[in-house]
Every structure is written in C-alpha cells, then in structure tokens.
Amino acid sequence: MASSCSGRGVSESTAARARSVMPGGVNSGQRSIPGLEDLVITRARGSRFQDDTGKEYIDFHAAFGPPILGHNDPDVAAAVAHAARTVDLCGVGVTDAEVQLAEVLVDLVPSIEKALLTSTGSEATFHALRVARAATGRRLVVKFQGCYHGWHDSVSLNVISAPGRVGRHDPISAGILPEVLEATLVLPFNDEDAVRRTFEAHGRDIAAVIVEPVPHNVGCLLPTPSFLQTLREATQKHGSVLVFDEVITGFRHDLGGWQRISGVTPDLTTLGKAIANGYPIGAIGGRADLMDMFSSRPGGPAFFAGTYNGAPAVVAAAVATLTKLRNEPVHEHIFGLGGRIRTALRDLYAEIGVPAVVTGYGSIFVTYFMSGGVPRSYEDLLANRGDLFVGYRRRLVKRGVFELPLELKRSHVSYAHTDDDVDRLLEATREAVLETLQFDGVEEAGVARTMGGVTR
Questions:
Q1: Is 148 labeled as catalytic in the residue annotation?
Q2: CATH number, span 74-327
Q3: Which of 114, 273, 324, 409 is catalytic?
Q4: Residue 273 designated active-site
Q5: Is 245 a catalytic residue?
Q6: pLDDT 10s digits, 399-431
C-alpha cells in the first residue's frame, strides 16, 4: 500500500518527483517541452504565471487558448465558489445552471438547436462522428491535413506531419487499428477540387466531414471564401453530416463561432477551450434530429454518457465566462491587441530583414519563417524554418515572455493582457530572433513535432 510519505529527500525537485511517478513527469504529451523539462508552475493570475523559482512569465501561450479572460478571472472564480457552496455532483437529473448554459449555446451559435455537455473537446468530436455514423449508416469520415480533433482513433492522424508523410495516413499514436485508419479519408485543407473528387468517388459511403474552420493546431490557416461553402454543398448533396470543430474558434473569434463569421452553418458543432476560461468542459450541439439520436433521450440509438458531464463547478465557470463575453468589451480588447501585435511583428521582421509571414485572426497570432504569401494549406507550411520558429521562442522564455516553443503552435491574447505586455513581447521578440540568427539554430537539437507520425 502506498504511503503518503514518499521517503524522497526534501531537496529533490518537484519535476524530478513528477518524473518518478508520472510518465515523462507531465499529464499531457503537449506539456513535455524540450528545454523545459523542469518547469513547475506555482501561480497564475491575469496575463502571467510564475514558476517554482519565482520567475514570472507573460503568458501568450494561454494553455492552447482556454483562458480568454486571463488566468483566475475573479468573476469566474466567484461563480465557481458559489456553485461549490450550493450544489455538488449528484449524477442524476439536471441543474438549472446546465439548462441556462444550453439555452445560451442555442441562442448564440447558429447551428445549435439542442446541445449536450461533455468534459472535453475530444469527447465532443468523438460523439459527433459516432452520431453521424448512426444517422447515416455509413462508414467513412473525411478530415483535413493539419486539423486536430482530439485523441480518438478516427481522427488521430495527419496533424503536424513530416514532409514524407503528407499525402498518406500519418497516425499520431501507436495502437490504432488499421481498419479504423482506413475509414478516414485525409484531404488538403482549402482544396475544393479534392473535396469534389472525393465525394464523386465515395459520397455514398461518407458519414461525415469534420473540419476546423480555421486550422489553428498548425498556427493559423484561414479558409478561402468558398472552401467552407463547398463543404456545405458537398455534404448536403450526398447526405453526409458536416461537423465544425469550433473547440478553438468558438467564442474566441466570435460569440457565434466561425460559422457566424463565414455564414456557413454546419449540421453539428463541437465546442471547448474558451467556453469556460480554463475549466474542463466541452459541448456538442446542432440539428435537433441529430441530437435527439443520443441516448440522453430515452430510445436514442447513439450512446451518450459521462459521470462529469455538466458538473456544477465547470458549468458555473462556463455561464460566467459567456456572460462576461456578452456584457463586456472582451473581443474589442483582445482583437485590438492582436491586431497591434500582428502589424508590429510584420514591421519588425521587415526592418531586420528576416523573411517571415505573420498571420492569425482576432486574438491569435503566429509567425512563420518563410517567404511568400499567407499560407493556405499545410503543404505551404513545410517551408517554415522550424529551427528559427522554435529557437526564438526558447529565447523568449528566458526573457520572461512565454510562447510555446513547439513547431507551428499559435499564440493568444487574453482580456487580461495590456499594451505594456505587448510592448514587452515586441522588445523580447526582436532580441530573441536576432540572437537565434546569430547562433544559426546550432543550439536547437531538432525541432519538436509532438503531433508527428508514428512508425507502425
């Protein structure tokens, strides 16, 4: 029987203790960062977090995007505390706050007629594909190179692929059955002709198309004006289900998600991240006839369950977050800072003579170190200089400015960030890029691709 006293020396670091009892010392593969193996977070508030040495970082990583209001937002924290004093997880029936949240989702997101809550975005996308197959009786799913939709087998492939693995199945994990991979068709993002050809060949067998309307898991690939409409037309013509994975774009880019920006309404939408400012909750919503197929409605053929679905504390966090997004100038603030960052970075790279493409949308920004115009597909991103991308971010961290030092990862602005934070970002970026160029990437022991291929 394990004892609460480990017997380890008091001088042993938290990171070392973590590695002795947790594989790799972290609870997600995306947190295992070369050069930051000993990073231990002790405090987070507003636009900053602190490590166990007392060093403070201005956080532009923002946990891949959830804390849109900033860390430990006081209004969200107060709502969670109130819920904790009022009701606990009972696992039966429904609470008024769950109903409130579903009503808000129906009100805000164009595609959502009914909604269900999950604990993660991955669960939401899993259920979306399951119900699409139940509704259509079909086998195939279409996804796009560079899009990430969670950890489950049907979509765990072709995210950040090495050049030689683009154009064929590139699973991000071992242990996936070959027949599951074979049921997923992978297409280039923004390639309308490939979509039409695929539906001409396989339309009768395609249950669903799932897409990040903006593939932010490879930084930022903006859709061409007609691409999403082509998906809508193809799926309607062939009776397939169109799923927008708005786990990232939902609420961060618009209260109605990218579907309201684009004017293209999918059949199902999945949500997460910014919905609750960092608390673990996801959601799936869409057409009532599809949502009524879940077993939350007696007789529904698509099984749906989860002990922590609709847990009071996380629901309270979501309601408080969405209330603040609706009532305060959050998007005005974060879009203003995001626009300022992108413009200033373009000027900076032009001034120092570094070929770079600065892109993003609203509160998201990313720099690709490459020549040419704004990239439209993952294949375009293969020209990015990974050594410079990762190298300057490693040097940013040393300067107390945190952008995740992994290949192709985006950065975020929150409501808590200020113009002073942006000033520091720009100053540190100049220093970090020039220093990286001076050493020509020799300190970068390879470029970490945490969603690359697995040899089977």
A1: yes
A2: 3.40.640.10
A3: 273
A4: yes
A5: yes
A6: 999 999 999 999 999 999 999 999 999 999 999
